[in-house]
Amino acid sequence: LKYSKFAINVFVLFAWLLQICYICTVFKSSFIYEVQSTYAELKAAGCYVVRHGGEHDVWFSPKNWQKFPIP
Predict the structure, then answer these.
(1) Exposure on the CB side of residue 17, measured as CA atoms within 13 A
(2) Rounded CA gap, 67 and 51, in Å?
(3) In this structure, what are the phi and psi dihedrals at residue 17, rounded to the nearest 5 degrees?
(4) What is the tens place of the pLDDT at every residue in 24-53?
(5) CB neighbours of 71 closer than 8 A, spacing ≥ 6?
(6) Which residue has the higher pLDDT, 45 or 23?
(7) 49 or 4, higher pLDDT
């Protein structure tokens, strides 16, 4: 079987895109886990969300009476 250079390039490009999608999925899932564990730690410390934002949430700490953003 002989394949054209175009077909081989398309196959290589497709394989490369699959690898990138897999890497992005792994990083996204680990990032979601980190965010969830951070939120759990903040809630355990008595902090709570003041406002949900598009890029970050604003939390309030009753221990030092300050607001702070969390991405």
Answers:
(1) 6
(2) 10
(3) -65, -40
(4) 676 666 666 677 788 888 899 999 999 988
(5) 55, 56
(6) 45
(7) 49
Q: Is the pLDDT assigned to residue 60 strictly greater than 90? A: yes
String of DSSP letters for 15-59: HHHHHHHHHHHHHHHHHHHHHHHHHHHHHHTT-EEEE--SS-EEE
33-35-36 Cα angle (round to 5): 65
Alpha carbon of residue 57 to chain centroid: 15
Residue 69 bridge partners (DSSP): 58
47 with 60: CB under 8 angstroms?
Answer: yes
- Compute the distance between CA of residue 4 and CA of residue 10 in angstroms, rounded to an integer: 10
List CB contacts of 3: < 8 A, sequence separation 6 or more: 11
CA angle 67, 62, 49 (to 5 degrees): 50
